[in-house]
Amino acid sequence: MTEVLETSGLTVRFGGHVAVDAVSCAFRAGELTAIVGPNGAGKTTYFNLISGQIAASSGSVRLMGQDIGRLSPSERCKRGLGRAFQLTNLFPGLSVLENVRLAIQAHRPVSASLFSMVSRHTGLTDEAMAVLERVRLATVKDQPVSELSHGNQRKLEVAMLIALDPKVYMFDEPTAGMSGDEAPVVLDLIAGLKAQTDRTILLVEHKMDVIRTLADRIIVLHNGALVADGEPAEVIASDVVQEAYMGKELTDV
Predict the structure, then answer these.
(1) DSSP states of 197-244
(2) Which of 74, 63, 90, 68 is CA-nearest to residue 167?
(3) I want to staple 178 with a disulfide (CB 3.0 to 4.6 A). Which of 103, 167, 182, 200 is the partner?
């Protein structure tokens, strides 16, 4: 499998606190990596460093062999790095359809003629509707995002990420706050993305049944440092994870 994303010695300090401590890790196409660890371990901060929400104190982030450490989050997105946030990042005053259409439009060249603009708008709408069908939101396409349930907002967030068609998908607790009926839809979508085999998926998740089902690999962070990396069964069974980092959570699920 080809290495698509790589962090080397990635570190960030907030005052005297090292939130992410020299994490070096490579992520490959066709692989879903779950990132686990106790609260405060640095998982979301590591995501923020990769996607550019915060600047690294030292170290590098490389995408497709290119150093992207100085690029803004939007530029990283254009290069193929897609992130779904733990808290929804949507346009609440616009409709569900408009949100997805804007996500598709953001990464397409601007048309010059009126005819091409009309044709392009129709095409974008058709593409957006196909994505909404995929995430089971077509029936609420005209509803303002502000009126959606939390679960549907999470599904819409995933839909917008799918619309961007990135090389790397980054999901930060994608089912957080969702009901038992809603969560399987998002998990099925992630499983479908994984089945494409040419995409790289990073997943921060606490639910070990989800990790067991989806992950090809687990990495464990603790106090900002990478302390375990390997196949799920191997990492889950390791003493360092069982005793020091995840407690009984892994064996009790």
Answers:
(1) SSSEEEEE---HHHHHHH-SEEEEEETTEEEEEE-HHHHHH-HIIIII
(2) 63
(3) 182
CA dist 93 and 147 (Å) reads 9
Residue 110 has pLDDT above 80, yes or no: no
Q: For the chain, give the longest Cα–Cα distance.
A: 64
pLDDT digit string (tens) for 192-207? 899 888 999 999 988 8
Cβ-contact 129, 138 below 8 angstroms: yes
What's the whole-number average pLDDT of the chain? Answer: 86
Contacts of range 132-140, beta carbons closer than 8 Å, 24 or more positions apart:
132/96, 132/97, 132/100, 132/159, 134/159, 134/162, 134/189, 135/159, 135/162, 135/185, 135/189, 136/185, 137/96, 140/96
**Cα–Cα distances in angstroms (integers) from residue 204 to residues 24, 64, 171, 215, in the given order:** 17, 22, 6, 11
Strand order in the sheet with 225-230: 81-84, 168-172, 200-204, 32-36, 217-222, 225-230
- Residue 22: which H helix or E strand, with range? strand 17-28
140, two tokens:
């609420």
What's the per-residue H, E or C state across 33-56? Answer: EEEECCCCCCHHHHHHHHHCCCCC
In terms of DSSP H, where are the helices of 110-207?
A: 114-134, 150-164, 183-195
